[in-house]
Amino acid sequence: MDINFEQGNANHPKGHAILYFRSPTDLLASYIVILPLLVDFSKYIPPFMATQVKDAGLEQFSSFAMPPLPEKVKSYEAIETLARVRGDDLIFGGSISSEDFVDTAERVNDAVQSYTNLYKGQTEIEIIEERNTGESSTKKTPELTVGEVVYSLMSERDKLRELTKLIGKLRFTMEGKDKRQMAEAKLELEALGKYLSDRFNISRLIEVTESSMEQGHRLVELYLERCYKLCDEDYLELQKIEKAITEIEQRAKL
Fold it and tell me: What predicted TM-score, i.e. pTM, was given to this entire model?
């Protein structure tokens, strides 16, 4: 089955995706998960059911869609935003009839299988490349700095508190026009950014902080606030913040 990636990359599937279909009246969605480890379900069920599990092919369970039949969702914008802030792939599975449950279940299963095959194929390639790189490289892995060791031990919220401090430090050094301290502050931010998910978009936050655009300070505040809302999974407020960011950035381009 062909699946269309509307967010993400078919050459680098993330292993978790929102799958959606269109019916004549509704938008329907499910969530695909590929487990990083195989799960032998026969270990967790009564012995008298073990044969049934094996007959169903579930003893080596590694990927699934939940719910098995896609559920109605509010809008495309809602799942598009959800996929973006969570860092999920967004996949379109095509058009279906919401009344033909057997066909719908088969379409979901086909999509799960297609997505799983893409993921496993790419993962195997990357493992081989990593192995070859490790065997051929004579360079040692750079040692972590003291700061990076500390970052690796912090909770996500503590990292965001540190992020706020470092952004303040960068802005202060910019006002003082001390290039050396500016460079140091930026390096600290980039080091911290390695330990925060891509969904926080730290590179963009640094870029905005360094810019001289109108309402730059307000934009920095919004980007920081966005990070905290992501951490809290407060998606309602997150949408309002992202709308305010878009409005300011669009005006800046005029």
Answer: 0.48
CA angle, 191 as apex, 195 and 214 as ends, to 5°?
100
The DSSP string of the chain is ---EEEES-TTS--SEEEEEEE-SS-EEEEEEEEEEEEE-GGGGS-GGGHHHHHHTT-TTEEEEEEEEEEEE-S-HHHHHHHHHHHT-EEEEEEE--TT-HHHHHHHHHHHHHHHHHHHHHHHHHHHHHHHHHHHH--PPPPPPPHHHHHHHHS-HHHHHHHHHHHHHHHHHHHHHT-HHHHHHHHHHHHHHHTTS-GGG-HHHHHHHHH---TTHHHHHHHHHHHHHHHHHT-HHHHHHHHHHHHHHHHHHH-
Return the amino acid letter for 252: A
Whether residue 98 contacts residue 49, with contact meaning beta carbons closer than 8 Å, is answered with no
How far apart (Å, rounded) are the C-alpha atoms in residues 210 and 167?
A: 10
Indicate the domain borders of the chain: 4-135, 146-253
Residue owning tokens 């409005």:
247
CA–CA separation, 110 and 8 (whole Å): 19
Give the pLDDT band (50/70/90) at residue 123: low
Q: What is the pLDDT of residues 178-223, one digit of tens each?
A: 788 888 888 889 989 999 999 999 999 999 898 877 788 899 999 9
